[in-house]
Amino acid sequence: MSYAIAQAAERSGLSIDTLRYYERIGLVEPPARDSGGRRAYTDEDLNWLAFLTKLRTTGMPIKMMREYAQLRMRGVGTEARRRQILVDQRTDVLNRIAELQGCLDALNYKINRYGEELQEATA
Fold it and tell me: Of 74, 17, 6, 15, nearest to 40 (Cα)?
């Protein structure tokens, strides 16, 4: 299946400008072109964009995303470094989850305290 840039943007949840930017900075290989010279994205391209979106959502810096993308493009022999990038990012995500869990615990404590105070005030 082939998708025009507007369709790829809609399916990926990214803007057309973001797709062009990702191509310009090397996160995405330039997609094939149709007979009219327009970008033609494939399902594989959309899968890669979905993964990039996940990496970005985890807070991975663009610099690291670029390194990962360049290693991916080089292919065989880069697996160890690609894996290490992902392991490091997973560690960062787990640390952020733990920090957010602590924040959630504090919020829950305060919410429960206010609930108790309100009950005592109406009793």
Answer: 6
Instruction: Inform me whether the pLDDT recorded for 123 exceeds 90.
Output: no
Angle at 25 between CA 20 and CA 26, to 5 degrees: 95
pTM: 0.85
How many whole angstroms separate alpha carbon 107 and alpha carbon 22?
38
For residues 100 and 95, what is the distance between their CA atoms, to the nearest angstrom?
Answer: 9
Architecture of domain 2-122: Orthogonal Bundle (1.10)
Question: pLDDT, tens digit, for every residue of 14-47?
Answer: 999 999 999 999 999 999 999 999 999 999 999 9
CB 40 within 8 A of CB 6: no
Q: Identify the three-state secondary structure at position 97.
A: helix
Residues in the chain: 123
